[in-house]
Amino acid sequence: MTVSRRSFVKSMGTGAAALLIGARGREAWAGTQSATSAFVPSATSDLLLSSNENPLGPGKHVLDAMQGILGESGAGAGRYFFAQQAKMREVLGAAHGAAESNVVVGAGSSEILLIAADVFTTPERGVVTPDPTFGTCAGRAALLGHPVERIGLDSALRVDLQRMVSAAKGAGLVYLCNPNNPTATAWSGPDMRAAILEMLKISPETTILVDEAYHEYATEPSYATMIPLALENPRVIVARTFSKAYGMAGLRIGYGVSHEDTIKKMSDWRGMDMFTSVPGRVGAVAALGNKPHLAKEIERNEVVRRATRKFFHDAGYEDTDSQANFVYIDIRSSNEDFKKACRERGVRIGGGSKLYPKRARISLGTMEEMEHAFGVFEDALKEVKQELEALLEQTHAPGE
After folding, report:
1. Which pLDDT does position 389 carry in this prediction?
2. 97 and 207 share one domain
3. Quick one: 233 and 99 in the same domain?
4. pLDDT for res 166
């Protein structure tokens, strides 16, 4: 059955529709007055370049699949569809040459990270994490009162693998984000594999969690997933998400892949597999089945990434070698001031970190959105530069 975006949104209802409207529907949605309007991007709302989202959403094939499971009347939303839980694990396993028993599904990959921190850290054996990086594992361990050891990045703003190896001994969990968030940097497959094997050699009781949220966007030829290693070694887990390249951030679907013994530990701790939505599960299966759509998204992101990096290079600003759907720019001024200047002009960007206060993380929108954003960035950079120069003049002004 073919459905239009409008009929699909109508059948879903405003609550679910708020999660599904993509950038291409902003103008049509802008005039709608509802309780969800504050959460749905529109032609009059700020341009959101702050959360590393896919600006186009999941694609019609995913929307159609979700419409199909819900039915014309929406009655499907009242059913649990238990069989879909096993179906999704089966499809995910097959996608990686594995079995259903090698997969645990979560509400985004963040749930996989939370489960790993719960299961594999203790008051005596904490987590070792890069700094800065995505903070879910470290935050959960800290909340539990478990030790957190933070390891700074190397000179290229990559995860410092050698220092991570040295710190791994005695840890309950080592967290590696590759490509890393917020720096967008990535290690090659051989380098990652060698580092993980060295960690396991010196600390065989430690579990290694590799977060590959941005895997699909990594275009460096030497980059490779660690899923094959995870399938053969019970001490290695790989986390993936449908929130980025697949455009399903609002639908909250992620998963972990590992040896079946490790997956059983995680699944047993979590209990019943009922924490993801039926539309999300069905949509994820549809997304996996449409490789041409994913390839187009990867190509689109690469084109926008090159253009964005060129804009900043031409303006005299350095960045990292991004392997993600965001860039990490050295703006040589306070990122907080730059964020504020951008926000005042209707563009929201991400933060840097306490360790890199002059770095800005900027998510990639559509090419049209970025072309608009370039003008905003130019004005905002001029403003913060002028403010810095004025401050320096005051600081060095002769006394009366």
Report:
1. 62
2. yes
3. yes
4. 97
